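Ticket reopened. Same input as before:
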Amino acid sequence: MMKSYEELREVIDKKNRGLRDKVMSLEDAIGLIQDGDHVASGGCHYSKTAMAAVWEMIRQKKRDITYSRSIASTEGDLLLVAGVVKRVVSSWFSPGVTWGVSRVMRHYTQNKIAEFEEWSHMSLGLRYRAGAMGIPFIPARAMMGSDLFPRLSDIKEMECPFTGEKLALIPALNPDVAIIHAQRCDAYGNVQLDGLPFMDKDIALAANKVIVTTERIVSNDQIRRAPDRTAIGFFCVDAVVEVPYGCLPHECYGQYEPAFKHMDYYVKLMMGRGPDGVKEYLDEYVYAPANWNEYIEKIGFKNILDATIEGRGIYND
Amino acid sequence: MMKSYEELREVIDKKNRGLRDKVMSLEDAIGLIQDGDHVASGGCHYSKTAMAAVWEMIRQKKRDITYSRSIASTEGDLLLVAGVVKRVVSSWFSPGVTWGVSRVMRHYTQNKIAEFEEWSHMSLGLRYRAGAMGIPFIPARAMMGSDLFPRLSDIKEMECPFTGEKLALIPALNPDVAIIHAQRCDAYGNVQLDGLPFMDKDIALAANKVIVTTERIVSNDQIRRAPDRTAIGFFCVDAVVEVPYGCLPHECYGQYEPAFKHMDYYVKLMMGRGPDGVKEYLDEYVYAPANWNEYIEKIGFKNILDATIEGRGIYND
Amino acid sequence: MTKLDYNTAELVAIMSARFLEDGKIVFGGAGMPLISCILAQKLHAPTLTILFEGGVIGPDIQIGKLPPSTNEQRAARRANMLLSITDILLLQQRGYVDYGFLGGAQIDQYGNLNSSFIGDPDNPKVRLPGTGGANDIASLASKILVAMHHEKKRFVEKVDFITTPGYLQGGTSRKDAGLLAGGIYKVITHLGIFGFEKESKRMCLETLHPGATIEEVEERTGFEMIIPDKIEYTKAPTEKELTILRELDPDKRYTTPKAE
Amino acid sequence: MTKLDYNTAELVAIMSARFLEDGKIVFGGAGMPLISCILAQKLHAPTLTILFEGGVIGPDIQIGKLPPSTNEQRAARRANMLLSITDILLLQQRGYVDYGFLGGAQIDQYGNLNSSFIGDPDNPKVRLPGTGGANDIASLASKILVAMHHEKKRFVEKVDFITTPGYLQGGTSRKDAGLLAGGIYKVITHLGIFGFEKESKRMCLETLHPGATIEEVEERTGFEMIIPDKIEYTKAPTEKELTILRELDPDKRYTTPKAE
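Engineering reply: fixed in the latest deploy. New output:
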């Protein structure tokens, strides 16, 4: 199941990693994803979700995608109901603690239409990290003894040759594509992140292709003035797309909080009518708009302004 | 040789990790180091060396210390000649490429007065990282096949249970004490670093005690305004000491470049007269001054001003 | 002394807070656990540090703006440090986290928790959202506190699925499985405080909350709870505890008992 | 065409630069390797990225302020990214580094390098400063360039100590040892360009620099160098190459041959 080191190297070897302009349209960027790919998503839960990328994946009718993320929220529902995703690899999957258990997740998994492969939060993080480091596994002291362990095909146990202790071996994950949303990024793909870093760095290095959506594209000069802030280097990035409000209705640290009213509206629809409710939502918010800006406009100016005031407010203290 | 996980946990368990004031004198901070300890040092080569800590270790006549660092420079000479260090664990040990091979290092190792245990740069980094992660090893694809490998008692090889590939297992290193120099730090030990991060974060988490010397102590409020800049958390720090110019004659990113004239002077003494030259240096620059500020004064105002202008000049672009 | 009035959720929040010592580090979840942690800080543990698994160390949570999740910027406000999720969870593996604060759909006599499946995992009645960081926290934090409403359907002999390891099959089975650190420290319900017998690792009553009875505990527990010969009682919530708790959650958003 | 005048260090710097393709990533050391990398950028590889093992990605080095080490702020000037040492070396393990640029006190017929001990490692005549990142680079970067002055005492049959793996004992021994990636690509000396025979992995002459002779190569090599039947010659340094090189190192600080 796991690729050999030589196969992994071959993929990276073929990438053009020159310091060159990678700015493109959302359509072209998502065009890099192929049916059947494993797509890993940055952020966590309803924070820093690469929502514009997810939205465009749905519009492009991607199929048989495996979707992995530290915690999947409403974007996971959308991907399932749209028929894009067959398997979700995550540690937790529902809109949010206060909104209850996703009826879509339950419908798709309980009826075996899709799979939800459950890893602990840390072990999923270590999977990306091992992938980022170019090693087949990282040992860990969690997962053992639980019923999660025997349900996973790729995890192993060993006796530590140094201490004799039992260790879980958490296997590397090298996604085909990473979709990551950034506060800022230059045209070459140098990404600078603010606030909560989630698993974004490891995901970008672990993936074979990296698509970055960003609140704004800044000059390379600006990046070079604070190179210690660069979290993801240009060399692994394949596409840079400027998408203001690219996480809505989820949040982007320092830029905007979630559009809570829209989230409440969505959750009510989803919990009330299950997949059918989500289909209605997809029609109105994903398929109907001519482009991302039209989608944002539908979320509503007041919602967005409120979210923005709260979001940037973290710098008021 | 490697401690069991339960022993490691016991040490950390005993640390007081409350959010409390840890500011103390250089004397008291270095007093936390015991004879026989393994002391790991942050920075690399002649950058961000915790020189004030090294200087005070010599004055306090520490003995039988194992000293580890990514690359050891002139501070390694001083520690050997002063009789503080018995074993250096590093990937490279000499003042700097342009200054040739340390005569002190050669004298002490060739005459078997002290040991220089050589690891590759990355594998020493992985040793600290495994220590920081609380795991006994990290697999890697370097070191194998070389003659470095069989000289090391703690490194092992295994066949990967996922891919069948051969892997080197790089053993965790949990130093007794880490000495780290920072651009700024609050009274609780929240450390923010600028520029090159070296291995400082991993060393701090791997060590059982952490002594931070810092160019300045800033308020906790200032730290909290940019928590994404905190590189080392207060919880692992045991001592905070304000020592302006605490790396001299080495450099501190964004603050000062090396005092090159003083470095040239030292190297000439060391290369010309070997350990005897260094003894003379120790008398004049380590033992004679009443305190760190007097030592700095002896390096000379013009030297320091030049180094400062160049050092902060990186922000001029 | 007049008898103070409080609901069962408030009782659990206060009892939990009492276990959090000063100078320690606690993984606070969203909701009630977070309220308990802040309560402890205000009462007896001013240098207690709260972590969130979203990557937050030592935040300064605004009363009235409690974060609904631990992975968002409200949880990060005025933190001392922000870390990647993987790194903050690894702090536990290094031994830096004293307390984990967990709940679950089910707990069993050995303290194992289930937050994955109700019914047969291969054909579940309910697929739950999953472990999040709970498996890691229970495997690695030094002392786990479990705060739950005491109900028979939740206190079961054997959980349908061990998402989050307690003492597994009891005895030495937790260590034998490779889990060398931590373990379930206390289970805090609206009826009492429960610990685990030293050898067998079976759940046992430690103290009964004022007003609760052994009968009620037994009635609401789906396995044989070990009851000591001499019953000790928990000290009732004080006026100070209740006053501060209610300042933290004035609308009782997090301290209203859920309907059974 | 008038014959251009250049010294042996300049020759090696120019020949090395020619191997660095555009769009690739190279670990540049301090000194001559760095000059070669910048020269390649100015000549044919404008989007070539330089890394330093001190943690620097894509710096903008000021002419006249070349960093004497790769671990200091001069090396970090106007970089695209700064990383920890461990992380920048791990980029190679992930496959992101195309070229490593190495030297050493000794090289042998299989391209193994020694920078640790001269003489018996247990009783060395000289203890050298050590590997630094060289072992990692030679184990993990895709293609290793070795730039050295060609001297018999440096080109030895068997290095006293393998600090930095080439093809080890030749044949498949490198892969057998677990080193699945990379390998020594070219050895560049003041006499010629050398590669490694496909099967045996023994060093072989590829092209002779203008003016150099087979005899000189053999005389200055301490093992049997494989010499092809038909000798090919390297294209001599061009005026453009020399002009730019001398702009980069006007004082010939890094491009003056060392006394043998």
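The radius of gyration of chain C is 18 Å. Chain C has one domain: 8-48+92-246. Please confirm and we'll close it.
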